[in-house]
Specification:
The complex is a heterodimer of chains A (370) and B (400).
Chain A: H1 12-24, H2 40-65, H3 71-79, H4 81-113, H5 120-136, H6 139-166, H7 182-190, H8 193-196, H9 218-251, H10 255-261, E1 264-265, E2 269-270, H11 273-302, H12 312-325, H13 330-369
Antiparallel strand pairs in A: 1-2
Chain B: H1 2-19, E1 31-41, E2 48-55, H2 57-60, E3 74-81, H3 84-91, E4 98-100, E5 106-109, H4 111-116, H5 119-127, E6 136-140, H6 145-150, H7 159-173, E7 180-181, H8 182-190, E8 197-205, E9 222-233, E10 236-241, H9 243-253, E11 259-264, E12 271-286, E13 293-307, H10 316-343, H11 351-358, H12 360-366, H13 370-376, E14 378-389
Helix pairs in contact in B: 9-10, 11-12
The chains are: A mainly alpha (370), B alpha/beta (400).
Chain lengths: 370, 400
C-alpha cells in the first residue's frame, strides 16, 4: 500500500534530531558498554562508526529503492505477500517490545533515583500519555518537538560537561591502561551488543523515512546523526569513567546520575541531578515514541487501516501494560537487554532480515534490467 | 460538547502531572534533619552502635540578645543495629520526625570499627539515593564516635559543622590531616593497588559530663580537633601517620595546599619559616622486573614567611641555600611517610595502580602478593622547591 497521506512532512534536520535523540535514549545515562570496562568509550566509538553506519546504509538503500513505501509494504513487495506479511508482523512486535522496554528503562531508573515510592504504573502512564497526545497530532509534531528537545538536550549536556570538568573530579589515569586485553579482548565483550544497540533499533526510523521532504538527503542526515551520536555517547561514557573510575562505573545502574552527583562547585552549585534526569526523560520519551509510532504506522499499513492516528490509543495501552510485564525486576530487565536481545533479537530482526531484503531487492532489480 | 470534554480531560491531566510528584512528599515539620552519623562498636557481637546527630531547627539561629534558649542546637539518637538501615528504622521510636538524610555532612567511624573494616558501611552510601557520595568521613583516634558528635564547641556550636570547618581550615593551612569523602574511599577500596586514607579526629582535654557546660567556659574543657591521618589496607585500619609523617604523605600525593616548613639558621636555635603556597607531585614507576621501584617528584612554590636570624634575602645565593634546606626537610618527611606506610603494608600512595597503568603485564605477576612487594618497593624521592617571594622586606631588622 502506498502511503496516501502525504500532507505530513519532516525535513532532513528533523530527521537528524530524531535519530540523535533515539540513539541517546537510555544509553546516554546508563553504563552503556560497561562490559568492555575502561575501554568502553573506544568500543562505543568503533561499534557506532562501523556497526551503526553499516546498518543505516542497509536501511537507507532499501528506502532509496522504495521511497514511497514503508518497511511493511516493501517487504511484501520483495519477498511476496505472505512472507512479507509475516516479516511485517515480526517487525511490529519488535517495535512494540522495544517501546515497552524503553518505557521500563525509564520507569526503573526514575524509581531508583527519585520517586522511590511512586508506583511504576503512574510513572509509565504519564510518559505514554504524553506520547499519545503527541502522536495523535502526527509525525510532523513529533519532528518539530524533536528539534526543540535536541536544542534543550545540547544545552543541558553543555552545562553538565562544563560543571563536571570544573569540579576537579576528573582523573585521567582512570583511562589507563588502554586496551589492556588487546583489541580482540575488547571485541569479545562488545560484539555484537555495541554494534547493534541502539543502531539496529533504528529500524523503527525507517517507517518515518517516507515522510521525508527530500528523499535524497536521507543518507547525509542519517549517517551524520549516527556519527554525531556515537561521538557524544563515547565522550559521555569516557567522562563517566574519568570521574567514577572503572569499578564504580561498571557497578552503577545509572552512571551519569552518579557522575553528576560528584559535582560540587564552590560548595553551593551541587546536586545537578535534574540535568541528568531531564536528559533521561527527553531521550527515553523520543526513543519510546519512535518505536511507538513505528508500531502504529506499521500496524496501520499491515492491516489497511486508513488513518494511523486512530491506532494511537489502543497501541499505547498495549505498550503501557507490556512495559509493566516485560520483566519481573530491574535485574531481569537488564539481563535480557544485555545478553539475549542483541544476539537473538536485534541481529536477526534488525540486521539479517533487512540485509536479506536488500540483497533480494538488488538481485531482482539487476535481473529486471538485464 | 466536545470542547467541554477536552477541557475537563486536560484539567485532570494537569492535576495528574503536577500531583504525581507529591507521592512521596515529606513535610518539613515531620522530618528530623540528620547532619551526621557516628559508628561505634557495641558490646554485643555483630552489632554496631549508630549515633545520629539531629538538628533542632528552632535552636540553630538564636536571635541576637534574646539568646537561643538553654537547649543545645542539636540532639543525638543512639541506636544499636547490625546495619545502618536497621538502626535508622529502629530509631523511629525515639524521634517524632522521620530521619532525613540528604543534608548529612559527615560520617565518623570509631577506630575500633575501622579496624574491623568499613566496607560494610559503604554499601548503603552507594545504593541509597538519599545519601550523598560527597559526605566527609573521619576516623576517631582514641575516642568514641559518639563523643565527637555530642561535644558542643564554642563559636560554631553544632559539632559536625564545627569539625568540618576546622578540618577544611587545617587542610588548607596546615596540611597535617586530610579531608576525604565517601566517594574517594569507595574508589580506593575498589581499585587494585590502591588503599584509602582518612582524616583522624582527636579530643584535647576531657569532655565534661554535661555537654552544654563545655561551651559556657572561656576555655572549653574539651575540643574536638581534626588531626593525623589513618591509613588502611583494603578497608581495615592499619595505623596512623602523625604530624610530619602525615604531611610527608601529603607531599607524596601532591595534596599540600599550604603549610609552614621550618629550617634552621646558622645558629641552630634560630629558624626561618618558609611558607609553602602550592605543591604538586608525580609518581613514576620505573619498569623494573625484579623489584618494584618508583620515583616520586615533588614540586612546590614557597615564600619566606618569617625569619629569626639575619640573612640577606636580596641575595639569590642565600635563597638557594634556604631552598636546599627546605628540600632536605621535605624529602625526609616524604621518606619517613613512605617507610611508615610500607611498614603498615598500606598502599595509600597508589603505587600498585601506577604500575598497572604503565605495565599491566608486570602488574599481573605482582598483584597476588602486592602487599609484600609494596613493603619492599624502592621509592626514590626527588623534591624541588622554588622560593618566589620574601615579602615586603629583603633584609630583616638588626639591632644597631
Amino acid at each position: 500500500m502506498v502511503i496516501q497521506v502525504k500532507k505530513e512532512r519532516i525535513n532532513a534536520w528533523q530527521l537528524f534530531c530524531l535519530i540523535v535523540l533515539f540513539a541517546f535514549g537510555t544509553a546516554l545515562v546508563v553504563s552503556y558498554g560497561s562490559d568492555s570496562g575502561r575501554d568502553a568509550w573506544l568500543a562505543i566509538l568503533i561499534g557506532g562508526s562501523v556497526g551503526g553506519t553499516l546498518i543505516f546504509v542497509i536501511y537507507g538503500s532499501l528506502y532509496k529503492l522504495f521511497p514511497t513505501l514503508s518497511l511493511i509494504s516493501y517487504s511484501q513487495k520483495i519477498v511476496g505477500r505472505w512472507i512479507g506479511r509475516l516479516f511485517g508482523l515480526v517487525f511490529i512486535l519488535y517495535f512494540l517490545h522495544g517501546s515497552a522496554r524503553v518505557l521500563r528503562d525509564y520507569g526503573d531508573l526514575i524509581n531508583a533515583s527519585m520517586f522511590t515510592s511512586t508506583p511504576l504504573f503512574f510513572i509509565h502512564f504519564l510518559m505514554i500519555l504524553t506520547m499519545m497526545i503527541v502522536l495523535r497530532h502526527g509525525v510532523e509534531v513529533l519532528g518539530r518537538m524533536a528539534e526543540l528537545s535536541f536544542f534543550i538536550i545540547i544545552v543541558l549536556g553543555f552545562l553538565g560537561v562544563i560543571s563536571v570538568l570544573m569540579s576537579g573530579k576528573v582523573e585521567t589515569e582512570n583511562l589507563f591502561p588502554i586496551l589492556e586485553n588487546g583489541l580482540r579482548g575488547m571485541f569479545s565483550t562488545s560484539f555484537p551488543s555495541l554494534f547493534v544497540v541502539p543502531w539496529g533499533e533504528m529500524l523503527a526510523i525507517t517507517l518515518l523515512l517516507p515522510y521525508l521532504t527530500k528523499p535524497r538527503s536521507v543518507m547525509k542526515a542519517g549517517l551524520s546523526a549516527i556519527l554525531f551520536s556515537t561521538v557524544v555517547l563515547s565522550f559521555t561514557i569516557m567522562l563517566n569513567i574519568l570521574v567514577l573510575g572503572v569499578d564504580v562505573f561498571t557497578r552503577s545502574n545509572f552512571a551519569l546520575f552518579d557522575t553528576i552527583g560528584r559535582v560540587s562547585l564552590m560548595e553551593f552549585i551541587d546536586r545537578l541531578d535534574p540535568i541528568v534526569l531531564l536528559t533521561l526523560i527527553i531521550g527515553d520519551l523520543f526513543k519510546m515514541g519512535i518505536f511507538f509510532l513505528a508500531a502504529v504506522i506499521g500496524t496501520a499499513d499491515l492491516f489497511y487501516v486508513k488513518d494511523y492516528k486512530s491506532l494511537v490509543f489502543p497501541i499505547g495501552i498495549v505498550i503501557l501494560l507490556a512495559s509493566l510485564t516485560v520483566a519481573g525486576n530491574f535485574a531481569e530487565h537488564i539481563e535480557i537487554g544485555g545478553g539475549m536481545l542483541p544476539l537473538y533479537v536485534h541481529v536477526p530482526i534488525a540486521v539479517i532480515i533487512p540485509g536479506l531484503l536488500l540483497f533480494i531487492a538488488l538481485i531482482r532489480k539487476h535481473m529486471k534490467r538485464s | 460538547m466536545k470542547s467541554s470534554w477536552s477541557k475537563g480531560m486536560s484539567i485532570i491531566c494537569m492535576a495528574v502531572i503536577i500531583l504525581s510528584g507529591c507521592w512521596d512528599q515529606k513535610e518539613l515539620n515531620n522530618i528530623a534533619l540528620v547532619t551526621s552519623v557516628g559508628v561505634d562498636t557495641a558490646p554485643e557481637e555483630d552489632m554496631h552502635l549508630f549515633t545520629f546527630q539531629i538538628l533542632i531547627p528552632g535552636q540553630v539561629t538564636p536571635t541576637i540578645g534574646g539568646g537561643g534558649g538553654d537547649q543545645a542546637p542539636i540532639t543525638i539518637i543512639t541506636q544499636k543495629g547490625k546495619t545502618m538501615s536497621e538502626a535508622v528504622r529502629k530509631a523511629a521510636q525515639q524521634t517524632p520526625g522521620q530521619l532525613y538524610f540528604p543534608h548529612m555532612q559527615m560520617v565518623v567511624f570509631s577506630d575500633e570499627v575501622a579496624k574491623e573494616g568499613v566496607k560494610v558501611f559503604l554499601d548503603v552510601f552507594e545504593r541509597d539515593h538519599e545519601l550523598r557520595p560527597l559526605t566527609t568521613v573521619f576516623i576517631t583516634n582514641g575516642i568514641a564516635a559518639k563523643t565527637v558528635l555530642s561535644t558542643l564547641t564554642p563559636i560554631e556550636m553544632k559539632p559536625s559543622e564545627s569539625l568540618l570547618e576546622k578540618s577544611e581550615m587545617s587542610v588548607k593551612r596546615g596540611a597535617f590531616t586530610a579531608r576525604v569523602d565517601i566517594d574517594e574511599i569507595i574508589k580506593a577500596v575498589g581499585t587494585a593497588g590502591k588503599d584509602p586514607f582518612i582524616g583522624g579526629v582527636k579530643v584535647i582535654g576531657q569532655p565534661p559530663e554535661d555537654s552544654t557546660t563545655n561551651i559556657q567556659q572561656v576555655e572549653p574543657k574539651a575540643v574536638i580537633i581534626p588531626d593525623t591521618i589513618a591509613v588502611f589496607q583494603g578497608d581495615k585500619l592499619k595505623g596512623w601517620l602523625q604530624e610530619y609523617s602525615a604531611r610527608g604523605l601529603l607531599w607524596v600525593l601532591g595534596k599540600v595546599e599550604s603549610t609552614i616548613v621550618n629550617v634552621e639558621c646558622e645558629k641552630k636555635e634560630e629558624s626561618i619559616n618558609v611558607e609553602i603556597i602550592r605543591s604538586k607531585s608525580q609518581v613514576i614507576p620505573l619498569l623494573n622486573k625484579d623489584q618494584p621501584e618508583f620515583t616520586v617528584k615533588i614540586l612546590a612554590d614557597a615564600n619566606i614567611g618569617e625569619t629569626e636570624c639575619f640573612i640577606n634575602l636580596a641575595d639569590s645565593n642565600e635563597i638557594d641555600l634556604i631552598q636546599e634546606k627546605v628540600i632536605k626537610v621535605v624529602k625526609k618527611e616524604a621518606e619517613v611517610a613512605i617507610s611508615e606506610v610500607q611498614k603498615h603494608q598500606s598502599d595509600v600512595l597508589g603505587l600498585g595502580a601506577a604500575i598497572f597503568q604503565e605495565d599491566p603485564e608486570q602488574w599481573g605477576y605482582w598483584e597476588k602478593d602486592w602487599d609484600n612487594h609494596f613493603s619492599n618497593a624502592k621509592v626514590n624521592v626527588e623534591a624541588q622547591i622554588f622560593i618566589r617571594q620574601s615579602g615586603l622586606r629583603n633584609k630583616p631588622l638588626e639591632i644597631q
